[in-house]
Amino acid sequence: MTARQIQVGTRLPEHRVVAVDAEHIRQVALILRDTNPIHFDVGAVSAAGLGDREINQGGTTMAYVLDLLTKWAGSREALRTISCSFRANVFRGDDVVVGGEVTAVTRRDDELLVECEVWADANGRRAIKGTATVVLANYA
């Protein structure tokens, strides 16, 4: 993508996670030492009035957004800021669509400072909404 092609309104390529896996949710809970039973105990999810499927960690859903930005920008180092709000749960079996749109572009020497709105939608629910800034190098 060239500097001219990156402008306000440019859409980031969508990233899709198909059927969030219960085993992956459990593994992340173990790695994080997250003892909240909504991530691995369907009875606890039900008792909390949250449904009948395990709930993905919010940080894992946000990581899907980070993956999108990293792939689009070309490196982790390109990410300067990110701010997200968690608006809905992502459940086992949900399909997640992650996307973004450029909201501002500033040229600085041979770099572009690109501000974006970002999101993660799970089966039609906006699970994450936020903003991010990336720096794209070598754009003369």
Protein described:
The chain has a single domain, classed as Thiol Ester Dehydrase, Chain A, CATH 3.10.129.10. The chain contains three helices and five strands, in the order βαααββββ. It has helices spanning 22-32, 42-47, 58-73, and strands at residues 11-17, 79-86, 96-108, 111-122, 125-136. Strands 1-3-4-5-2 form a five-stranded antiparallel β-sheet, with helices on one face. A hairpin with a 2-residue loop joins β3 and β4. The model has no long low-confidence stretch (mean pLDDT 92). This is Acyl dehydratase. InterPro entries: HotDog_dom_sf, MaoC-like_dom. Residues 16-116 form the MaoC-like domain.
Overall pLDDT score: 92
Helical fraction equals: 10-25%
Net shape: elongated
Give the end-to-end Cα distance, rounded to a whole number of Å: 13 Å
CATH topology: Thiol Ester Dehydrase, Chain A
Question: What CATH first level would be assigned?
Answer: Alpha Beta
**Spatial sequence of strands, sheet with the most strands:** 1-3-4-5-2
Topology as a string of helices (H) and strands (E)? EHHHEEEE
Task: Give the helix tally.
Answer: 3
* Number of domain modules: 1
Biggest sheet statistics: 5 strands, antiparallel
Which radius of gyration do the C-alpha atoms yield?
A: 17 Å
**What are the low-pLDDT stretches, counting only 5+ consecutive residues below 50?**
none
What is the tally of beta strands? 5
Structural class: alpha+beta
| Approximate strand percentage | 35-45%
CATH superfamily: Hotdog Thioesterase
**CATH architecture classification:** Roll
